[in-house]
Amino acid sequence: MDILPFHFRTLQLCGMWYEDNRFVILKIIYRITAMFVVFTVIIGQFIRLITMQDNIDDLSDNLFITLTFISFCLKILNFIIRRHEMEDLLHDFRLPVYQSRSFEEEKIILEYSNTAKNIFFFFLCITQISGIILLIMPILISTDNVFYLPYKTYRPYSTSNISFWITYAMQVFTSFYGISLNVSLDTMTYGFIILTVGQFKINSYRLINCTLSIKDFIIHHKLIQNTAIKIESFFICVIVPHFFFTLLVICCSIFQISQKPVASYEFFTICMYIICILWEIFFYCWFGNELGLQSQSVADSLYSSKWLSCTTQEKRNLWLAMLYAQSGSNISFHGQCTLSLRTFLWIIKTSYALFSLLKQISN
């Protein structure tokens, strides 16, 4: 895999992606088995949420984990059902015009590819560390040989003796598998946006240094715009509900922190969880904002090009391209929920407002 290799390699290990037809039956069986274990835990979380009593503390305690799992399910289903669109997106980045044609362009591509890779490993490390702490702390703090499961889910059986350890093993597998898959799917969104930003930068570089004809420059720019639209089409249907769930998750998490002793493991794990969520949303908005800025900067690079030596027709084409580029490329849902820093601030403010409301209801 040449595009976002670590993301797709992780998806291969999780049974969610393959490009060859060898051992297809075994791959399908592995995927179904893994999905069965994961969805069993998720369904248990959801059943417990809808059957619990009207206790605001228990509700918020279970809600933020359940919403995270529901958002995770939407990402999985979107990726599986729309696989052909992902293949089309990968095809775009393999087009000859997207490849480097000089040492400077190679440096640009390498810079943005390394950024996508570093973000993937950054998120994988902090989320796996948080997951490990969440899994082992209930065992470490147990007293009188009374153990508690990391995830409070509905179970139609008694979790005593061997049943407890089987359920614990399922939750451990779900945690490691779910975190790896969720990080891959989330950072894949950043990755494609980052690579698109790099293409806009290459487009500007080629115009300024006259490495392309005016016609080829416009074709390249149009292809990048179409790629950005495909990224928006593929990911926005899960980004919007994910942002909505994040509002509630941050709200419930902060409420839970306010109810826990500062020195408790619950306080520490929830803090780690909130940090991961905030970083995740921040990177969505940051790189979406970078996409808009870099796409608009293409219009500015036209002034640095050798446009005075162009023909009248070429000047007209450049003028139209400049007008088209000034609008920029943004990832949004019909103009709403745009990936920008303004959206990130709105999420933080709204989450705090919901927390204040939840606090008043609790009191």
UniProtKB/TrEMBL annotation:
One example of a Gene Ontology biological process annotation: signal transduction
Record bears the keyword Transmembrane: yes
Protein's membrane topology: Multi-pass membrane protein
Keywords attached to this entry: Cell membrane, Membrane, Olfaction, Receptor, Sensory transduction, Transducer, Transmembrane, Transmembrane helix
Residues that span the membrane, as ranges: 28-51, 63-81, 119-142, 162-185, 234-257, 263-287
Key word Magnesium present: no
InterPro entries found in the cross-reference section: 7tm6_olfct_rcpt
MF (Gene Ontology): odorant binding; olfactory receptor activity
Cellular component, GO, one term: plasma membrane
Subcellular location: Cell membrane
Family assignment from sequence similarity: Belongs to the insect chemoreceptor superfamily. Heteromeric odorant receptor channel (TC 1.A.69) family.
Official protein name in the record: Odorant receptor
Gene from which the chain derives: LOC105361477
